[in-house]
Structure formats: structure tokens, C-alpha cells
């Protein structure tokens, strides 16, 4: 888990602000036609305005719902499947070639197919996002389960606990830090895929749809503003999940720290 | 209370233990000592039901053991792997008590009492990784005590702590187990420890491990780290166990000549 401290955060902010200032100055000095590509300050202003724009907010809420549902479905499928495959070696061996075949298929390539299968756009978008977000959670869960110390499991077995209890009380908590990392990666992937499916397949609501409409109106300021907000949302989600992991899995970091 | 009849186990073509026969009476502290690779851990894991021995039977109170028996607890050498780092000391100790069908309040009370017995009442809220090795092994012992097993298996329980902590833990184990009237089977490679802790020392041969010696330890109690170890009887017994472990035939003359190698 990347550790963010005050100094590195400050430097990051300085770097970002410096780049934006250079771009702003270049635009004002006539490096490009600001009628076509707006100034940094204009874009940032639009991005701020979008946060109170009812039309954008309807789209944002729609995307957010799709994203959250996709993440929930991903967790509901990938965590139990990963636990099973991690604990039952023959099952993992049987499914492995299939996983290795399916995993590299870009989710975006499935969009035309999925459009034909679903009449409901939300279902279509969720399916596309889940397909891409599934893998990091599944793979991390499998490795997390494998990483659980056999002696930790045997200890509980020696007290007479059955396989179900061992799975619930030792394997699941022991693998939890890996699962959490998988979910954090999946959260980012799902954002990308939700917006992508909105851009490609269209629809009525969604940030991707909003960007497409802004494009047809030649509003680059709104397009870039909305894109920046999606990026900021991604950073926010990642930071929240990292903070949650650091808080919940102090034991894991303490142990990993002691080992290195 | 515990009886091993022709207990054997092979891993593929490797014979770890071969027809081990042993009877342990209620309340006895039996130390099993042997050279490394004599199948000590295989023996313990067979009794604990963690592996299914390929031959022979384990009888507990006259009944053959299938799976992990009730009323049995194990203390492993590797406390850092055997304790759960996501749980406090109190939660670690209380966890096995779920098997006893106690509610949370009673589990916590029993866990607290066990931690008090090992001198860790003040560290109940600490996590294993915040503790020293000796403290962690005390938590493991407390976990076994709280469970109140009739048979306590200990696999090199003091093998990973420093010498002083080791002596403290030996005395602690003897004290609290005598208090509870527990039967203990302690596995060690340390000849000195086996004589100090045991009422009886059972010596296993090199793999395939089999019983080559079964010596009663007649030392006055309560045992004391300094005085017990300087007793003539202790020194003599230790030498005898040492010879057995090294694969020499035991002899009882005091000259020390004519030792045969098996």
C-alpha cells in the first residue's frame, strides 16, 4: 500500500500546480487557438460549475450507481469464487486455463456483443464493468488464500474446528488484505469501463453520455471539465480505500514490515 | 488415557515413524525426545488428528481417534504463525472456546483468567505483533489452558525463545498444568529439557522413529531450575537420555566405558 505523507503530498501538489500554470501561460501567450482548445483556468472553472449543474449531476448519479452496482456484483462473484479456487487446488487447476484465456480479452471488445444481449443499458454497462473488474479481485483472492499460513489453519483444526469454521475464521481474515487490494484495483477498473461503455454504447444518462453530447455541441470546455471530474473521483476512491486498508489491516503491514 | 498402538506413518516411500507403542497415564507429563528427523512432529500430528497415520491406532480414553479429538489442545513451536495477528491476545485465547459453546462474556472471562495465569493480564488488548516472542508463546499457552483440554500436546514449545525465557516458560507450564491436572505430551530435541520437565522421558530413534527408551524421572518436586539441574540423579539421567538419543546402548555402570554404538 503506497504511503502518503505530508511532504510527498505537498510536492505532488506543487508539481501539478506548476504544470497547470505553465499550460495556462502558454495558452494566454497564444501557443494554441483558445477558441478551439480552452485555457486551463476556463476548464477548471467549468469543472467546478458542473458540480452544481443539475443536468450533469443526473448523469453523474447514474454513472455512480452503475459503478457501485458493478463493484458489488464483482465482489459477490469474485470473492467466493476466489476463496473456493484458492482452497480447492483441483478446482483451481481445472479453471486456470479458462481464466488465462478469458482474462486478456479486453472488456471493451465485448461491448458490441453485450449491447445485443441486453435491452437495458444499465445491465449492459454493469456486465462490461464486472467482466473487467472481476480479474484483479479473483486473482488476488486466490493468492491471498494461498498465502494463509498452513500452521494457522492447523492450529484451529487441532482445537476441533471443521473446514467451514477454518475458512471463515482463518482463511477469510488472513486473505482479507489481498482481497482489499484486489477490490481497490477493481474500483479503478470499473470507473474506466463504466465511462467507456457510456461513451461507446450511448444511452440517456451517464457521464460518458454527457461527454458525447458536449462533443456534438463542440464544447471542449465541458468535455475536459467532465473528464477531470471523473479523474478526481478515481483519485478520491483510491485514497479512501487505501486509508481503509491501512486502518483495517495494521496487523498485515506490521507483519510485512517485520519480515523485510 | 492416551495409548499408541503400532503407530506408523510413511510419506510416499519415506518412513517417518515405525510402530510406536506408548501409554500415557492421566496427569502424567511425558517428554518425547529424539534426534532431528525422528518423526517427532509426525507423531504429534497423528495424535492431534492433523494427519491420518498410515498404520496403527491412537486411543484416547480407550476410544480410537478419528479427526481432531475433543479435549485436546496443541501448543506449536512457531507462536508467530500459530497466533492470529488480526486478533488481540484476549481474542486469540478466547477463539477456541467457541467450541465449548460459551457466549462472548464467558469466553472473555475464561480467556482473561488464562492470561492472568501466564502473567499477561495487562497485555490482553495487545496484538501478537506488538509482543516479544516469550509473551507470544505465553499467549499460546494461555490459549491451550483456557480450553481446559485433558491432553495438552506441545511441539518444541520453547524452541524459539531465548534461554532465560525458556526456563521461565518451562516452570510456568509445569506449574499451571499441575494446577489443572492436565496430561502433557511434550516433544523436544533438548535432552536437558526433557529430563527437567518430564515425569517420564521417551526416546525415539532416528527415522523411522521408534521407541528406544522409556525412562521414569524420579526427581524431587517442585523442580527448580538451579537445584534440580545440579542433582546427581538429574545429571545421570540426562547422560543416559543423551546416549539413547545419540543411538548408543544405555548402560548403568558409572565408569562410562564399553559404550556400544547401535
UniProtKB/TrEMBL annotation, chain A:
It is found in: Cell membrane. InterPro entries: MetI-like, MetI-like_sf. The lineage of its organism: Bacteria, Bacillati, Actinomycetota, Actinomycetes, Streptosporangiales. The keyword Transcription regulation does not apply. Gene3D superfamilies: MetI-like. It is a multi-pass membrane protein. Pfam families: BPD_transp_1. One of its GO terms (cellular component) is plasma membrane. This is ABC transporter permease.
UniProtKB/TrEMBL annotation, chain B:
SMART domains: AAA. Keywords: ATP-binding, Nucleotide-binding, Transport. It comes from the Bacteria. SUPFAM superfamilies: P-loop containing nucleoside triphosphate hydrolases. Coiled coil: none annotated. GO terms for molecular function: ATP binding; ATP hydrolysis activity. Residues 2-231 form the ABC transporter domain. InterPro entries: AAA+_ATPase, ABC_transporter-like_ATP-bd, ABC_transporter-like_CS, ABC_transporter_ATP-bind, P-loop_NTPase. Transmembrane segments: none annotated. It holds the Pfam family ABC_tran. PANTHER family: ALIPHATIC SULFONATES IMPORT ATP-BINDING PROTEIN SSUB, TAURINE IMPORT ATP-BINDING PROTEIN-RELATED. This is ABC transporter ATP-binding protein. It comes from Herbidospora galbida. The lineage of its organism: Bacteria, Bacillati, Actinomycetota, Actinomycetes, Streptosporangiales.
